[in-house]
Specification:
The structure is a single chain. Helices cover 39% and strands 17% of the residues. It is built from 4 helices and 7 strands. The strands form 2 sheets. The protein has a 5-stranded mixed β-sheet, covered by helices on one side. Strands 1-7 form a two-stranded parallel ribbon. Strand 5, helix 4 and strand 6 form a beta-alpha-beta unit. It is elongated, with a radius of gyration of 26 Å.
Length: 135
């Protein structure tokens, strides 16, 4: 009988306590969630024009896309030209220091690009960049 008790005690002593490991994993998970930045997409894929003078910039908080058919997209939703200012004002309230990036397709009309930039500036966003590819 004495042997059975010692075997049971040895099995209990051999258990690995994973509680500290789980604590560390959850702390790391919380750290990565808090420090990560999420990329916002406008809702469509555009073919950006090429530019020799393209400069790398930080991602803008407000991203507006213009499709080849001159459709305007903000946050996965199609928006009319007259609604751009209202939508940008809503996004600006979330992040007052945010900048805007316009992704215009190479085949879109230049008038829409100018009108969208004007609507964004009328909404109070001072920094507006046009997204391009480097040549």
């Amino acid at each position: 009988m004495a042997k059975r008790k010692s075997l049971a005690q040895d099995a209990a002593d051999d258990d690995v306590n994973v509680t500290p490991l789980l604590d560390i994993v959850f702390i790391m998970l919380i750290f990565f969630i808090v420090t990560s930045t999420f990329v916002k997409e406008p809702g469509i894929e555009v073919e950006r024009p090429e530019a020799v003078t393209a400069e790398d910039q930080r991602f803008g908080k407000i991203i507006v896309a213009i499709s080849p058919d001159d459709e305007i997209w903000i946050n996965n939703e199609r928006v009319e030209l007259e609604e751009v200012r209202i939508r940008v004002e809503e996004l600006k309230r979330e992040n007052p220091k945010g900048t805007a990036v316009v992704q215009a397709d190479t085949t879109s009309t230049a008038r829409y690009l100018v009108e969208v930039v004007n609507q964004i500036r009328d909404a109070g966003v001072a920094t507006v960049a046009v997204s391009t590819d480097r040549t």
